[in-house]
Write a structure and sequence with these properties.
The structure is a homotetramer.
Chain A (H helix, E strand, L loop, with lengths): L3 E6 L7 H10 L4 E7 L4 H10 L11 H10 L6 E4 L7 H9 L3 E5 L6 H13 L4 E4 L6 H11 L6 E9 L10 H6 L2 H4 L3 H17 L3 E9 L10 E8 L4 E7 L8 E8 L5
Parallel strand pairs in A: 1-2, 1-3, 3-4, 4-5, 6-9
Antiparallel strand pairs in A: 6-10, 7-8, 8-9
Helix pairs in contact in A: 3-4, 4-5, 6-9
């Protein structure tokens, strides 16, 4: 068995999604985490590397340094996982793609359209590959739904109802996770970017249909909030199906409720 | 105990909602059905009256005749239930209101705005009262939700998600119930009028909020259908809350699924 | 339409199940309640009759008097509903059966085996018929389950899990309903008689199988309670199937939870 | 970070629960699988070791050899996971305990009471520790339930309803997993040992109560089956609570349904 070598940008002490990526990477026993630029704070980066068993010489102070150093090592990483806040996706993604290292990037793609375009340009120019982790597409239930639709079990699709409701931002909350997600400069968007992107990706992935047009209303219900915390969207899909998408971080009573319903002329899921 | 005397327009053999009204009227033992214009077909009207124990002299050939005759009797009906297709709501409603007889009318109010205005005019001019049976408002769960919201248990309302999904018109179906409901001249509208009206009424009844603006997309998915069979609506409610409403008669797998969710800054239902 | 004439023993002011029987009798519009011995308290009996629209001369002071008088009238009742506490089932049942009047009796059959035998003897000797209202057998879901099993959809039955859990007697409660149900002289039994009888009847009705042997443990968990408030029973059914029955009035969180699961070699319900 | 060294007995190609243990061991990144006697078939053992990245010199032909060799190595394993069929629990457990190596053993403890006693004797004599993996006790929901009961949230416990229903043995199935589980010599018991042991352990773990007496009926419903495939058990718990346990592998429609309900005088879970 050949094990793959993984690096990580972000995911140091106090982070949230980095740990989730590490657990996922461990499940099949095929990856070893061997390098990292785990925090923009050098002390935290070093301490985090020790905790995770990363050798000191492969704990880097910046992603730029890491990309260059790992590309130069004969035993350099096979891929890097980028698990930073949204506005720090494009920088490392471009750096590693330029260094020829495969990139696994957390969603959403970026905080701005410009950043997204920069990633696309770098990905197209690189021999390495770029992967965006819309993780819910990996759920067996979603794969099953997609396969049933692809083989025509639902017939011609008519209606898609997607929703992703949370309530952890129903009040004016301050903590490491809330702070960057509600700062437009770091997140780029609120509920629509953090969880709406999952619902939007998933409805397209499962139905096999692209959205051709949409009409959205984004609201910020919490006083002083600078990003949307609730999004209502109507969708016109290719082929004539119609859809609705609701993403909310203020739906009190919903810890983390993702729901997808698709109806065709022969069946519903 | 004084029992009230009920008349009925529509609801003869082969009808659907008339029987539901009769069951509801029987539950508390306070009503007797004593008169009717049960069908536009005279033979069916007479046969239906016999089945329901209505005396022959109070089985009428038309609602006009019934309104006049019952108004003239010393033991005339206390109220009439109108359970006809939508385009035959305004005619009998106006006739009985003019005759001074209370009216219980099935929803939706009418098939056109003109008919609705005629009912309003007649109701304002009459000593009798006009009741529209949005029956779901009578459910204890809805009353409880409304009371909780009214006393502030949810705080300031933010988001309302209402839906009413059915699937019985997912194909091009022909039967007595389907035929008039999919004929624009008789129904005035499709899913939005038949069931969307329940969802729209209910969200306002429970939340205590009126819609100030809306944006709707109505679709007819079944080939040849002349009324909408799916409706997606975005709502702006008084006070700033936002909502979505989905009504569908083509959502395969949903026999009759009415669902209302309301979220405020202190709680959700 | 010929309407049937119903009498009632019990069910006066303050009673519980009598009102439920009246609602059920009204649903199809084929019964009129015309006579009653509604309470053992004469004043309450008379006042209750007035409320229910029963003519004063057909409001009786005792069931004995009612049985004789109604049997003698040319327009006497077609059937009597007995809705008294368990220990007052046998008396009126025998009296009306002897008078040739059909009996609809609430469950359980009686408070003692002797009373039950007396009813059987009277029913066998009478031209009238005796009905015991295990009402859950009337639910469409149960009829459907029974039909599926009868036509072999589950194959040969193996396992039956029945339960009926409530919590309204989890504490030492005193009210009209609780008092007689927890008095052995009036109820004859506790949870097993009040609700276990439903579960036992239903499992047999739906499965089509009789119990051949059983092993039961009855407990009284509330201090001072003189009847069982929890029953655990293991069942050996005819044909080899095995079952469990749980009936409880102390299962906090269960308002009224009846559940039946049946498994055969080809399917489960 | 110090990583622990894990060995495994059983769990080679074609096995089921060994892979589950490996996934569980990987989740927190604190274990490395470095040694194994993965199969009683030497070729399969060797091939399995290659797949799992175990060095050839630490892939052993027998658990006896493995226990001795690992105990002698300065870098020997910290613990061994025994994931063999039930009748091969006691042999390796005793061997590793005697060698001073900690043992993580899959449930049930053993196939016979004699084997269980042998493990107890060895565990008591060893400096190493013995762990039995009743994995459901690790679920956060169960820990929460246990903590609530321990702090008195349910009051004095009265009733416990435990069940574990599956259907994969509803027919006479033959495959690697079914064959040993339905062979009395290898499994020691059927549904009661394979899954009833989880329900029994869990109800005691969560309630904090030991069973003082029980009455069980075990049945084999599938023709030719030599172990029980359905178990009904009534329980008398210390302190007076009563319980029922149902374990079944023939409950068609239940893929893997574990359910625990506990009721006290103040609450229910």
């Amino acid at each position: 068995m050949t094990r793959l070598k993984l690096g990580m940008v972000g995911g140091g002490q106090g982070a949230f999604i980095g740990g989730v990526h590490r657990i996922a990477a461990r499940l099949d026993g095929k990856w070893d985490l061997v390098a990292g630029a785990l925090s923009s704070d050098p002390d935290r980066a070093a301490a985090s590397a020790v905790e995770l068993g990363i050798a000191p010489e492969r704990s880097y102070a910046s992603y730029e340094e890491m990309a260059q150093a790992e590309a130069a090592r004969p035993d350099g990483i096979d891929a890097v996982a980028i698990v930073t806040p949204n506005h720090v996706h494009a920088g490392p993604a471009v750096a590693f793609l330029k260094a020829g290292i495969n990139v696994i990037c957390d969603k959403p793609l970026a905080a701005t359209a410009e950043q997204a375009e920069a990633i696309r340009t770098a990905a197209e120019a690189s021999k390495a590959r770029f992967f965006l982790t819309h993780n819910y597409t990996g759920y067996p239930l979603m794969r099953q739904a997609r396969a049933m639709i692809a083989r025509g079990a639902l017939g011609r699709l008519r209606v898609i109802q997607a929703e992703y409701a949370q309530d952890w931002l129903a009040e004016d909350t301050s903590n490491k996770q809330a702070d960057w997600r509600t700062d437009p400069a770091q997140s780029g968007a609120g509920a629509i970017g953090d969880i709406g992107t999952h619902a939007f990706n998933l409805l397209s992935f499962v139905s096999g249909l692209e959205a051709e047009a949409l009409m959205a209303e984004l609201n910020s219900f919490v006083d002083g909030r600078r990003v949307d915390d609730n999004a209502h969207i109507m969708l016109r899909m290719a082929g004539g199906a119609r859809g609705m998408l609701w993403a909310s971080q203020v739906a009190v009573g919903n810890e983390n409720a993702l729901r997808l319903r698709i109806y065709g002329d022969k069946g519903g899921l």
